[in-house]
Design brief:
The chain is mainly alpha-helical. Helices cover 76% and strands 7% of the residues. Helix 1 packs across helix 2 (35-57), helix 1 packs antiparallel against helix 3 (71-86) and helix 2 (35-57) crosses helix 3 (71-86).
């Protein structure tokens, strides 16, 4: 159980890193070859298949000309719920 909780905490950490890196890439205008961009793309390839079904149920919310994607927050809540159920 401790191993599974540790693994889920590691997934949470990676998900938070992916979210923060997304803001850095978008607002920092990081070029394609930059290591930060490569880390963001790598984590995106891991999380996108997991987030895709959540986005089918809850599509991004339109706010003016932008869209707010709530799927990472839903995934965080699901992981926290599973960790809580593990005790």
């Amino acid at each position: 159980m401790n191993l599974l909780r540790g693994l889920l905490n590691l997934v949470l950490l990676a998900l938070f890193a992916w979210i923060v890196l997304g803001y850095v890439v978008v607002f920092g205008r990081i070029p394609w070859g930059h290591p930060v961009r490569r880390a963001y793309d790598f984590l995106g390839r891991i999380f996108e298949p997991v987030l895709r079904p959540i986005r089918r149920v809850l599509p991004p919310i339109r706010i003016g000309g932008a869209a707010l994607d709530l799927s990472p927050m839903i995934l965080i809540l699901i992981i926290w719920l599973v960790i809580g159920l593990l005790g």
